[in-house]
Write a structure and sequence with these properties.
Elements: H1 3-21, H2 47-67, H3 74-83, H4 86-101, H5 105-126, H6 129-140, H7 149-164, H8 171-201, E1 204-206, H9 217-229, E2 236-238, H10 242-251, H11 255-266, H12 278-294, H13 300-305, H14 313-344, H15 356-368, H16 381-396, E3 399-402, E4 414-419, E5 425-432, E6 444-449, E7 452-454, E8 457-459, E9 462-466, H17 482-499, H18 515-518, H19 520-529, H20 532-538, H21 550-558, H22 564-581, H23 592-603, H24 619-622, H25 632-650, H26 656-667, H27 675-683, H28 690-695
Parallel strand pairs: 5-9
Antiparallel strand pairs: 1-2, 3-4, 4-5, 6-9, 7-8
Helix pairs in contact: 2-3, 2-4, 2-5, 5-8, 6-7, 8-12, 10-15, 14-15, 14-22, 16-17, 16-20, 17-19, 19-25, 22-23, 26-27
């Protein structure tokens, strides 16, 4: 063959190979099943170009809206704005998910580069004067536009977003707002990275088997396998991931080990090292109040709550205080009972925070003949998944079929196609339930693609649930604690909210509701998970397949109000701390330790209990979007307790009529209407706090 022809062929092959290697999946149509993310193709180097192209593309789309000379209407302004930035939204969702559950130094470096870019881009939109004039024109003339309830809600959201985004500020104040937003976004990013690094940096190495006295065999085996995975021989390792730490706190007879691991946990971000978060917190709190006042609000809490069900900080404090005194009284009784046991055992020390789980477990066993480790064999993670899937089938007829043809981002991940009772496709659900160093702590739900409708097409959601549950060992599957079971049901409730959405616009679909409403659909699921009728269906021994005995169910229910003083107090303490940080009225930087001590002193928190989250690792409020919003869980719990009471009063926890109304008005409606209006359409009345007080044993 002619050498010239051979050279041309080789150049062509090389060019094709180079082109294939440089294809960015974000710029291509995804040919995966149901348009799921092609995780087997997406590489770290694809993110930054996609972010840049996505920003550039949305800027062009925004400009097209601005230069359109037609009279502004919902169809020429609001809808094009809603549909703009499709590529940017796609890459943001995938990147955010991976940076939360599969992070590494490269992803974190990309995040540090992209975060200020996104902050600037967001400000460029909401500070665009010409765009805001068009939005305002449509808003001012909305009564004559013949809009649907959902369209009115979408318009209202955009109009308020522009106002709250600084659209009415002077040029000088707009520039100041840009600087505040950029710095806050970077501080938030650094806060979360510090918490993860601090969490991963601690390991409690056990050298002697005698130090394991009291621990269940499964816990010991997990610790041994953790040590082996880290290169240790004949040792045991515990971490401050809760699935590892809590069993040690519950069962370890060695008090010094309990103290060591709990101190490591509650001192996260507070060790004066490279991961210390105190300066970040004081700076963020000061910048947040400065931004709020620039926008016309007295505090950050007023700014945040204006668009929530609570409306203002006074309403939040009122609810917290209503619960605080009865909860604290119960917690004090629990403390006194534990102290009595300590003395009866011949010890002379005072109960400390690291003793609480240990003595609570002992008292629970003495009072109710109930050891939580006794129930774990009935809660293998697969059984619990089958249980929550089965509940959804019983309530709404929906079904879940595992798919092995959908690309995954980690071997632990499972993917399911969700189908309605008639067999039609609803969406895709990913589950990712075990801890790893690349994953931040906690549990959460989000979407790779939200549900919407466009040009007559129903766009199906792609949802994911993430957790950090007890890992399987070589001999046993993942066996969950009662708390982990409730958490799995909780996050699945969020997933249902995303999956069963039937809205037109993404901005108001699925979980796009007020923060103090969004936890309602998740928390209501916790009512079902421990109900005897439901338990009998899914809680089966992982070895024998035998259903959980009635006697054990009775013990679970008898002990359900046990330790609720502690659980309520540690939660409320964190909620007060959140509100105190965000009701400061001067943009000054406080000493974090003094501020927190003063906050807890004001409410009279007893020294034996530490807030569920101390400031330095309070990801919810400094890195997770819940600032001045951690109260949302208890606010929503008022709703979920009242809602489940309707099922109980009907005499059927699977009541099809109620389930259908709940799906229609809560799950399918997303944020298309006022949250309380939607609740009343389902329940027929506003909720009261009575059911919550009774359920928590506070009344």
């Amino acid at each position: 063959m002619n050498k010239f022809i051979i050279l041309i062929i080789l150049i062509g092959i090389t060019s094709m190979t180079f082109a294939q290697e440089n294809i960015n999946p974000f710029f291509e149509e995804w040919k995966t099943p149901f348009g799921t993310p092609p995780f087997d193709e997406i590489k770290n180097e694809h993110y930054l170009p996609a972010f840049k192209k996505g920003i550039e593309g949305q800027n062009k789309e925004i400009n097209a809206i601005v230069v359109n000379r037609a009279v502004p209407t919902f169809q020429t302004v609001v809808e094009p704005l809603e549909y703009s930035g499709e590529l940017l939204t796609k890459v943001k969702r995938i990147f955010s998910a991976m940076n939360s559950s599969m992070t590494n130094e490269e992803l974190q470096a990309i995040s540090r580069e992209v975060t200020p870019m996104l902050s600037k881009h967001n400000d460029d939109i909401y500070l665009n004067e010409l765009l805001f004039k068009k939005i305002k024109y449509v808003f001012d003339n909305r009564s004559e536009a013949g809009l649907t309830t959902e369209q009115n809600m979408l318009l209202d959201k955009y109009y308020k977003a522009f106002i709250r985004g600084g659209a009415n500020l002077s040029d000088e104040d707009k520039e100041e707002l840009r600087k505040l937003n950029e710095e806050l976004s970077m501080l938030s990013l650094n806060f979360g990275e510090n918490v993860l690094k601090e969490t991963n940096s601690f390991e409690l190495v056990i050298d002697y088997e005698d130090d394991l006295v009291g621990l269940p065999e499964s816990t010991v085996q997990t610790a041994a396998e953790e040590a082996e995975s880290r290169g240790y021989e004949d040792k045991w390792i515990f971490t401050i991931h809760k699935s590892s730490m809590i069993p040690l706190l519950q069962y370890a007879k060695n008090r010094s080990l309990r103290e060591k691991i709990y101190r490591a946990y509650f001192m996260k971000g507070d060790n004066g090292n490279d991961f210390d978060n105190k300066k970040i917190i004081s700076r963020m709190a000061a910048l947040r109040v400065k931004r709020a006042q620039l926008l016309g609000y007295p505090t950050h809490a007023h700014f945040q709550l204006a668009e929530k069900m609570a409306k203002n900080p006074e309403s939040v404090y009122e609810l917290l205080r209503e619960l605080w005194e009865p909860a604290l009284n119960v917690a004090k009784s629990e403390r006194d009972e534990m102290q009595k046991m300590i003395y009866e055992e011949g010890n002379d020390f005072n109960l400390a925070s690291w003793d609480w789980w240990y003595y609570a477990e002992k008292i629970k066993k003495a009072k109710y003949d109930f050891d939580e480790d006794e129930v774990r064999p009935y809660f293998s993670v697969n059984n619990v998944i089958n249980g929550v899937f089965g509940l959804a089938t019983d309530l709404w007829g929906i079904r879940f079929e595992e798919r092995i043809d959908i690309p995954k981002y980690h071997p632990d991940v499972k993917t399911f196609e969700v189908k309605d009772s008639d067999g039609s496709h609803i969406g895709i659900l990913y589950t990712d339930y075990f801890p790893r160093n690349s994953k931040r702590g906690g549990a959460w739900m989000d979407a790779f693609r939200k549900q919407s409708k466009r040009d007559g097409e129903f766009i199906h959601p792609i949802i994911y649930n993430v957790g950090n549950f007890s890992k399987p060992t070589a001999d046993t599957p993942s066996l969950l604690s009662l708390d982990e079971v409730e958490t799995l049901f909780h996050e699945f409730g969020h997933a249902l909210h995303g999956l069963l959405s039937e809205c037109t616009y993404e901005t108001v679909s699925g979980t796009a509701t007020p923060r103090d409403f969004v936890e309602f659909p998740s928390q209501v699921m916790e009512n079902w998970c421990m109900h005897p009728e439901v338990l009998k269906k899914y809680a089966k021994h992982y070895r024998t397949g035998e259903p959980i005995p009635d006697g054990l169910i009775e013990k679970i229910n008898n002990s359900s109000k046990f330790n609720q003083g502690f659980a309520t107090v540690e939660y409320l303490a964190a909620s007060f701390l959140d509100m105190d940080w965000h009701t400061i009225t001067e943009p000054v930087q406080y000493d974090v330790t003094d501020f927190e001590n003063n906050s807890m002193s004001k409410i009279g928190l007893i020294e034996e209990i530490i807030p569920r989250y101390r400031s330095t690792y309070f990801n919810h409020i400094f890195s997770g979007g819940y600032s001045a919003g951690y109260y949302s869980y208890i606010w929503s719990e008022v709703l979920d307790a009242d809602a489940f009471k309707a099922f109980e009063e009907s005499g059927d926890v699977y009541n099809q009529e109620l389930a259908s109304k709940y799906r229609k008005y809560i799950l399918a409606s997303g944020g298309t209407d006022d949250a309380m209006s939607l609740y009343k359409k389902f329940r027929g009345k506003e909720p009261d706090i009575e059911s919550l007080l009774i359920r928590r044993g506070l009344k």
